[in-house]
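Weekly structure sync, notes
Attendees: PL (lead), two postdocs, one rotation student
Agenda item 3: pending single-chain targets
PL asked that the sequence for the first pending target be pasted directly into the notes so everyone works from the same version. It is reproduced below exactly as submitted, 77 residues in total.
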Amino acid sequence: MKNHTYVHLPQPTEKVRIDVKETPGYTYPRPVDHVRIVERAQIEGGRYMQPLGNEHERVAPAGSCPCPCPGGDCPAD
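Predicted structure, written out during the meeting:
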């Protein structure tokens, strides 16, 4: 069997130019080159103060854990 098909394989190109146009195009805002930040704090006398009855830490004595621990073994003791 002999293949008599004519074959012409050209050499690859050295440069390829592709032009693309999309409609509608994209429009982006200019990049930021200046930022101005103004902060203002208001001092309001004692609005967020700690309550007077909560100034000291209270520690429960051993064995009086308020949580329901199974078997009486409390990890807080």
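Discussion points:
- The two ends are 95 Å apart (CA to CA).
- Residues 39 and 45 are 19 Å apart (CA to CA).
Action: rotation student to compare against the earlier draft before next sync.
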